[in-house]
UniProtKB/TrEMBL annotation:
<dbReference type="InterPro" id="IPR006311">
    <property type="entry name" value="TAT_signal"/>
</dbReference>
<dbReference type="InterPro" id="IPR050490">
    <property type="entry name" value="Bact_solute-bd_prot1"/>
</dbReference>
<dbReference type="InterPro" id="IPR006059">
    <property type="entry name" value="SBP"/>
</dbReference>
<dbReference type="Pfam" id="PF13416">
    <property type="entry name" value="SBP_bac_8"/>
</dbReference>
<keyword id="KW-0732">Signal</keyword>
<comment type="similarity">
    <text>Belongs to the bacterial solute-binding protein 1 family.</text>
</comment>
<keyword id="KW-0813">Transport</keyword>
<protein>
    <submittedName>
        <fullName>Extracellular solute-binding protein</fullName>
    </submittedName>
</protein>
């Protein structure tokens, strides 16, 4: 699954996404050419990244899975889609024999919600399927970065540590290189074929797993098509005759038509994430994606006119009074679900996972409710320019001190959790034990109360299959999600550093930390555009220009990944 970070400047809260394990959303399946990884000539450098020549020696061979055929193949960076009902009798087997040797593996991972008891039926069934005794050290996902930093600074590091990309700040990237094992001897080249489900993970996701010149991470792949969708109440739009906007001016006009504060109806929430897309702002939760070449010069997004224009348009929506009052609270705003369902606002940008999540949430209590996704528009009415997401965003790492037997057991776990949709291993990983954790009626698996307690974000954090969208309960949503990704993927551009795992020098890692808050302050009228211009000037003088030179050196030595 690939959520978007609450702490990242370009994405909404990941909590609601990761709290659902009904679908694994991972990277586009198959066949993308190896991109220039580029970076310092020393492949073991703690700063920079790994050159394409060195990466080719490190990467696992790609062997597409033929266990299950999707109903909708991947296209333009989309997930694959499954739109049929589920028949347990026809589930395939992708792991014919246990690869685990019965050892014990401890895993520290972020967790959103209340962790289940350690001896629950789901954990027991998964461990039996794999042949490994996995012991979970679940940590609060909302404060995970602090816990992660403390653990990595100590000598007591668990066998496996899950690190989301949005937590790779400060000294954590350096700690990853010094604390975790090189998996290359077990996975590079044809060695990965011992673990067929890992071999079917797309090459670009593995490339993102190279840290300090070594293959250290087990990836949770993701589509590179956009993940942020302008979601809207299709049922109310159809009832009222509202038309989907095709420019920022049309959106403003529509927003004013919808809004009636006295009747407690507003058009939207904060639209900043959609503004990035409409104005063609370099975007992504990873800092390297904030850079790209413009007219022969490497620039950061904060230096572009598009960035200021997107912020200004977002500010005008607040100024016009069309944004729901909850959005003025910023990060601490309440869950948008209830007020969206009540029709207090009709549009909000969020992760594509909420398309299905809100549909399922309202299916019984609000049968008229219909959430859908708008196509992103160009700000002036033309086609948008949207920047590609990274092909992997969450990684599991193995302690450098782990024995070969422990590493083999971890890979046995990953080979099961990376099983594709339509297999017995996928069902166990994502749904648990039939009858205990879920039931199937008319081809639709439904979690039981126990399933909602036990089968949460645990094993899915170790490794995942190529990006998949499958909702047997609402197949029309899965179809629409994949088709939206494919349409928007056609307007998606890969920036110069797309797909590269880059570790910035520590002295500059916190340079841009205050920009998200400043963006939000300007959008809400608490600060001015001139404050941003001053902040950009300060950023340049405090190290931004030197950081530019550092990134430019990477491009000069190894080339661009842009397409």
């Amino acid at each position: 699954m690939t959520p978007n970070a609450a702490s990242a400047p370009s994405g909404p809260s990941r909590r609601s996404f990761l709290a659902s394990t009904a679908v694994a959303t991972a990277a586009v399946a198959g066949g993308m050419p190896l991109l220039a990884a580029c970076g310092d000539s020393d492949s073991g450098s703690r700063d920079g990244t790994t050159s394409s020549k060195d990466a080719k020696k490190i990467l696992p061979a790609y062997v597409a899975s033929n266990v299950v055929t999707p109903d909708i193949p991947a296209k333009n960076g989309s997930a694959v889609g499954f739109t049929g009902k589920l028949d347990l009798a026809t589930l395939k087997t992708s792991v014919p024999k246990k690869l685990g040797k019965g050892g014990k593996v401890t895993v520290m991972s972020p967790f959103w919600g209340s962790p289940p008891k350690s001896d629950n039926a789901y954990y027991k069934a998964m461990n039996d399927l794999i042949g490994v005794n996995v012991s979970w050290q679940n940590q609060d996902g909302n404060t995970y970065e602090q816990k992660l930093g403390a653990v990595l600074a100590s000598s007591d590091v668990p066998d496996v540590v899950v690190v989301p990309g949005w937590n790779m700040n400060g000294k954590i990237p350096t700690a990853i290189i010094s604390k975790f094992a090189d998996l290359g001897p077990y996975l590079s080249g044809d060695a990965v074929k011992e673990y067929p489900n890992l071999a079917a993970i797309p090459t670009e996701a593995w490339q993102r797993s190279i840290f300090g010149g070594k293959l250290r991470g087990l990836p949770m792949p993701s589509p590179w098509a956009p993940s942020i969708v302008p979601l809207y109440r299709r049922d109310i739009f159809e009832k009222e005759g509202y038309e989907i906007p095709k420019s920022c001016d049309e959106f403003m006009a529509l927003a004013k038509e919808i809004t009636n504060a006295k009747a407690k109806r507003w058009a939207c929430l904060d639209m900043k994430w959609t503004a990035w897309q409409a104005f063609g702002v370099f975007s992504g939760s990873e800092k390297p994606l904030w850079w790209d070449m413009v007219d022969g010069k490497l620039v950061n997004r904060i230096e572009t006119e598009q960035y200021l224009e997107a912020i200004e348009w977002s500010r005008k929506l607040f100024e016009a009074g069309v944004v729901h009052p909850d959005s003025k609270m910023g990060k601490n705003a309440p869950d948008p679900g209830p007020k969206f369902a009540a029709g207090e606002f009709l549009i909000y940008p969020n992760n594509i996972s909420q398309w299905w999540g809100r549909t399922a949430e309202q299916a019984t209590q609000n049968p008229e409710f219909k959430i859908w996704g708008m196509d992103v528009w160009g700000h002036d009415g033309g086609n948008p320019t949207i920047y590609a997401e990274e092909p992997a965003g969450i990684f599991a790492f193995v302690n450098k001190k782990a024995s070969e037997s422990v590493i083999r057991d971890v890979l046995a776990v990953a080979n099961v959790t990376a099983a594709p949709y339509g297999t017995k291993e996928y069902m166990m990983t994502n749904y648990g034990v039939e009858g205990t954790h879920y039931t199937v009626k008319d081809g639709v698996p439904t979690k039981t109360d126990q399933g909602n307690i036990d089968v949460m974000n645990a094993y899915v954090m170790i490794a995942s299959p190529a990006a998949t969208l499958a909702h047997p309960d609402f197949p029309e949503v899965a179809k629409a999600q994949v088709e939206w990704e494919q349409r928007m993927g056609a307007f998606t551009k890969k920036s110069a550093f797309w797909g590269m795992q880059i570790t910035e020098p520590n002295r500059w890692t916190n340079l841009a930390n205050d920009f998200e808050q400043l963006e939000d302050d300007i959008v809400r009228g608490r600060k001015k555009i001139s404050d941003m211009q001053q902040a950009v000037s300060d950023w340049k003088s405090k190290g931004g220009d030197k950081l530019r030179d550092w990134y430019k050196k990477i491009l000069d030595e190894n080339g661009s990944a842009a397409s």
